[in-house]
Amino acid sequence: MPYVLGIDIGNTNTAAAVARRHGTTWTRPEAVPLHAGSTLVPSVLHLSEDGSLHVGEPLTDDGSRTTRDFVRRIGDDVPLLLGGEACAPQTLTAELATWVVERVYALEGGPAEAIVLSHPAGWRPYRRDLLHRALFDLGLRNVTLLPLTVTVAESHAARGFAGTTAAVYALGGNSFEAALVRRTPRGTYESFGVPQGLDPIGGTDFDEALAGHVRTVLARELAATARRGTQAALRGLLPECERVKRELTVDLAADVVLPLPAGPARIPVTRAQFEGMIRPTVQATVDLLLRTVHGAGLAPAQLDGVLLAGGSARIPLVTELITTALPVPVEVEPDSQLTAATGAAMAACQVVSPRPRRPEPVREPAPVSGAGRAAIPATRRHHHDTIVPGDPPPRPPIRILPLELPKASRLALARSRGRKG
Fold first, then answer.
1. CB-based contact 145:117 (threshold 8 Å)
2. How many CB atoms lie within 10 A of CB 336?
3. CA distance 246 to 244
4. Residue 227 in 3-state DSSP?
5. Of 380, 10, 421, the residue nearest 191 (C-alpha)
6. pLDDT score, position 235
7. Alpha carbons 1 and 356: distance in angstroms, whole number
8. Which residues cross the membrane (predicted)?
9. Hey, is 400 helix, strand or coil?
10. CA dist., res. 219 & res. 183, Å (int)
């Protein structure tokens, strides 16, 4: 069945969603199981000794062959080192995107009719162009890049949000973005104003805060245990704190469980305790959201809602503080980690089957000016870029290129030897 693909490559996790053609319409986007039945795969690449490229957390602790956080580095002249080789961050991002495309190809039995990839709202044309050309070099030529805040708005619109102007609050694993979107005459969304971000701030900070609390509670017990057993327990502390963080979004209390040498330890944590640990960080994101709205010359009452995305956006404290600062409806989806990917798939439907332009409301004639000629409003610029199959990618406004991989590099050979999940 013909389908389109939406991809969201975050700093911590990657997600994808597909929408399938059903006659003249498209089905609601569905998340794709990317790794071991999970709809999320860590945005991590590992280069093995034989030159094959693995996606996800490696089984070994060799940090020199593992790279993460490369999306935020796009546009940086300093390359990343992977297995001793200099790698441009846009090349690594394109490799991960290609892995997703190939994964979905195998599941769907054919190529996507269109692909939309979300990117940080604050990116300017130079960084988008770098990623476009890296995708082009790997054979992905039908990719549209859209700001994450636009794909978030498209996902909420598909679930019933009918507002015209909204603020987007995107809280990722180690990044936060606030931006404004508005509906165009075609019914799609575009960004306006100046996006703002805090980096690195995100859900991992909440995990660390909870882990610090657990270490304090267990300080005496951990000091009395064998060193080897203590280290093994602490290695699993952050994943356990992440689990408890998710549990506290729906429950009022949860236990952090650690398998210590003397037996499992249970540290009870209430939602109120957890919210007290993270309140200053969440408040900083809400303050930035409010500054983003005021910076665009808007009053809170002019917003139709605040649209949330990101795994930690479901924490009740987030909605509470946003509602206090902006008394408008706050929308959050059941699985907010997938919001940007499903919205990208919705946008991909529109790439293949554009919506008809809505009729403009009847306006009074514009007052004449100067020599009797009516003033003509400036044309809006589109806030996304598309590569048409077969066309060469556009060049950046300035030619400052990061180091490229050698032609004979093991990373380049990864394509011929195959990627692995």
1. yes
2. 23
3. 5
4. helix
5. 380
6. 76
7. 24
8. none
9. coil
10. 53
What is the token pair recorded at 297? 């010359």
Strand duo 330-331 + 306-309: pairing: parallel
The strand pairing partners of 256, in sequence order, are 267
Q: Give the Cα separation of 197 and 280 in Å (integer).
A: 16
pTM over 0.85: no
Peptide linkage before 264 cis (omega within 30 of 0): no
Return the residue matching tokens 């993460």.
Answer: 68
What is the token pair recorded at 157? 């619109």
Query: CB count, 10 Å around CB of 377?
Result: 6
Structure tokens belonging to residue 78: 């300093």
* Burial class of residue 419 in the structure, from the number of CB atoms within 10 Å of its CB (0-12 exposed, 13-18 middle, 19+ buried): middle
- For the segment 8-14, the average pLDDT, to the nearest whole number, is 94
Q: Which amino acid is at 212?
A: G
Does the pLDDT value for residue 377 go beyond 50?
Answer: no
- Amino acid 397: pLDDT: 42
Token pair listed for 207: 């995990």
DSSP of 309-367, one letter per residue? ESGGGGSHHHHHHHHHHS-S-EE--TTGGGHHHHHHHHHHHHHHSPPPPPPPPP-PPPP
Residue 228 makes CB contacts below 8 A (sequence gap 6+) with none
Each residue of 99-112: pLDDT tens digit? 999 999 999 999 99
Question: pLDDT tens for residues 163-187?
Answer: 999 999 999 988 999 999 999 998 8
pLDDT score recorded for residue 263: 80
> What pLDDT, on the 0 to 100 scale, is given for residue 414?
46
* Alpha carbon distance 248, 242 (integer Å): 10
Q: What is the pLDDT of residues 212-258, one digit of tens each?
A: 999 888 876 655 555 555 666 677 889 999 999 999 999 999 999 98
Mention every residue, 6+ apart, whose C-beta is less than 8 A from residue 123: 74, 75, 147
Residues making up the chain, counted from first to last:
421
